[in-house]
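Re: beginner question about structure tokens

> Can someone show what the tokenized structure looks like for a real chain? I only ever see the sequence side.

Sure, here's an example I had lying around. Input first:
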Amino acid sequence: MFLKHFSLNDHPFIENPPVDWLLRDPRIQEAMARLSFFLQQADIALIIGQTGVGKSSLIKILLNEIPQNQFHPLYFHLTPLNANAFLRMIVFQLGEKPKMGKDRLLLQILDKIQQNEKTSLFIIDEAHLIDPQVLTDLRVLISSLAKPSLKILLCGQEGLSIILKRSAHTDLVHRITVKVFLKTLSKDQTAPYIDNRIHRAGGNQKLFDPEAKALIHDYTGGLPRQINNVASACLIHAASLNQKRITESIVTQTMSEFHLP
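And the corresponding structure tokens:
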């Protein structure tokens, strides 16, 4: 394992790192500013971005920083469910036993939210896979409650934008006052991203040469998940060659056997 070879305490590029490992780069800072406004003033917010761009990391940061005395967050990611099943999941997460029939489920959710002294926050991840009827049900819920009883955060890939353009969701879209379109990392942002992960894992931030980090950005397009994959592969390859630094040459050799999808 390359950890011992590079004197690392942990794998620096794991898929789900601790929240304090997550770098607040300019993209995340801007997104958090918008989400802060959402928590204070808006009913529905939208996060859109391609797979692996850092949407889940953004949600993790939000959940870590959200005022727990003001909000009751509920996270949903099992989105490929029919509408009734999704409502039952909400009821279950609210601590109730789901009743039969959509009308009773909706009333259960409304009653439970109204009883809560905190504002309920529904965070719906992978929302591009959601049953369109669920979006209609969510619009009904939020329009039936007095502010600020419920807030909804929809998070998904670009396909969610296409779904929301359907005329059936016009009323819902008009209620989305905060939109976050998460982009990939620039070349200048990729280097501190790699350095931060190495530092958090207990390693030397000079482990990756500047030219190597720039080349990794070129190969990955600045997509964080792919940066993690390529950087991990480089560490493995360098360790196998008994090399202590990740050079431009190491990245080139690694990528000759590493085919991105």
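Each token stands for a local structural state, so reading them left to right follows the chain. Strands lie at 44-48, 71-76, 119-124, 150-156, 176-181.
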